[in-house]
Amino acid sequence: MLTVNSLYQLHNSLINSSSNLASLALRFYLAPIFWMAGMSKLNSFESTVAWFGNSDWGLGLPFPFLMASLATAAELIGAVLLTLGLLTRLISIPLIITMLVAILSVHWDNGWQAIADANANAPFANAQVLAAPEKLERARDILQAHGNYEWLTASGKFVILNNGIEFAATYLIMLLALVGLGGGKYHSLDYWLSLYSTRKCLPLKNIL
Predict the structure, then answer these.
(1) pLDDT tens digit string along 52-68?
(2) Distance CA 122, CA 115 (A)
(3) CA gap 49, 53 in Å, rounded
(4) Which of 132, 155, 157, 164 could form a disulfide with 113 if both were Cys (CB 3.0 to 4.6 A apart)?
(5) Farthest-apart Cα atoms in the chain, separation
(6) Up-side HSE of residue 18: CA atoms within 13 Å toward CB?
(7) 160-161 vs 115-116, strand pairing mode
(8) 76 CB contacts (<8 Å, ≥6 apart)?
(9) Are 140 and 158 in contact (CB under 8 A)?
């Protein structure tokens, strides 16, 4: 027979299990994203520095070498630590800062949507998005008339990159969730280090 106490315990058990799964899913989802972003910067580092510093065609940020180095290091180290579940809350903070810089300096002027497709009635559609369907239709007409359209679209339909804040804002929210959730139980090094520090009376538990 179910009692109030047993229902409460079941509720807490479900909450703990879902929190642990959510933390694992967030970490494993974000890790390859930041790894690819960091490797892209590292493999073309001189171009990245130039893009960070140039005010005509780039971001026009101060100290471009330092900023590019910090962004690259945060993404690569962050990807590794998120995979391991090590210092999850701490590494989420520089990654949050990186996302804020990206939102404000790269994506903000383009509105919300990352991709502009035929759905011009989507929420927060700006002038760029509203103009996309006509341009896409014109491009399709040209490609159907002068190209192998079936081959060109075999890997997916054509869209227009709007480069809005959608993806960066999503990653930011996921990182904020990790600050609250931490690395999770059993599947993160944070958990095992915290357990070890509790047994050894080491001051690690409060930062993991």
Answers:
(1) 999 888 899 999 999 99
(2) 11
(3) 6
(4) 164
(5) 73
(6) 6
(7) antiparallel
(8) 34, 35, 38, 39, 42
(9) yes
Which 3-state string (H, E, C) describes the chain? Answer: CCCHHHHHHHHHHHHHHHHHHHHHHHHHHHHHHHHHHHHHHHHCHHHHHHHHHCCCCCCCCCCHHHHHHHHHHHHHHHHHHHHHCCCHHHHHHHHHHHHHHHHHHHHHHHCCCCEECCCCCCCCCCHHHHHHHHHHHHHHHHHHHHCCHHHHCCCCCCCEECCCCHHHHHHHHHHHHHHHHCCCCCCCHHHHHHHHHHHHCCCCHHHC
Q: What is the pLDDT of residues 133-156, one digit of tens each?
A: 888 899 989 999 988 989 988 998
Find where tokens 């035929």 sit.
118
Confidence of residue 13 (pLDDT cuts 50, 70, 90): low
> Once rounded to an integer, what is the mean pLDDT over residues 116-124?
68
Q: 79, 38 in Cβ contact below 8 A?
A: yes
d(C-alpha 117, C-alpha 133), whole Å: 6
